[in-house]
Amino acid sequence: MTRKRGRSVIGEANRTVMEPVTSYALVSQNTARRIGRNGGNVMEFGVFQGASVGPRPWDETEPQRIRDDVEMGVEADRAGFDTFWAPEHHCLEEYSHNSSSHLSCLAVGMRTENIRLVTGIFNLCPPINHPVRVAEQIAYIDILTNGRIELGTGRGSGSTEVNTFGITNE
Questions:
Q1: Mean pLDDT over each residue of the chain, to the nearest integer
Q2: DSSP three-state, residue 19
Q3: What pTM does this model have?
Q4: What CATH class has 43-163?
Q5: What are phi and psi of 70, to 5 degrees?
Q6: Which has more confidence, 29 or 139?
Q7: Which 3-state string (H, E, C) describes 32-74?
Q8: How far is the C-alpha of 129 from the C-alpha of 135, rounded, in Å?
Q9: 4-11 contacts: CB < 8 A, separation 24 or more?
Q10: Domain segments of the chain: what residues?
Q11: What is the average pLDDT across 13-18?
């Protein structure tokens, strides 16, 4: 375990706080690769940004929150975090206004060098996102980010999201 001085990045529904801290961290994935490839367990650190905006009105908070999420990913890369996670959600009120996880990953990836980018989920139901189109988009992002994108898939957080696209729960 090594002691590091750095900045803590804390996201909340309507604001982002940057404050100096002293933290203890296990080695990052990049450090683990340098230490050796003997199959040891390594703890990874990441940030999960979902553009949670809080209660209405969203006229100013929504665009700012989306920009702040990208900045959080850039700062996480500078701080040595391993992953930036961006979820995909649709038609939710306060929980998440990120409807394009792959574009969030691309925005962060174009401004960073090391952090891995993860769609923390990309819904593959054809009425929402056709799987072939998703594969094309992820392949394109993979090229632009030098292989740092990881595709995470799933259904979504509830029926509101899938029902919006005419998918029933049956």
A1: 75
A2: strand
A3: 0.71
A4: alpha beta
A5: -65, -45
A6: 139
A7: HHHHCCCCCCCCCCEEECCCCCCCCCCCCHHHHHHHHHHHHHH
A8: 10
A9: 4/80, 6/79, 6/80, 7/75, 7/79, 9/47, 9/72, 9/75, 9/76, 9/79, 11/47, 11/49, 11/52, 11/68, 11/69, 11/72
A10: 43-163
A11: 36
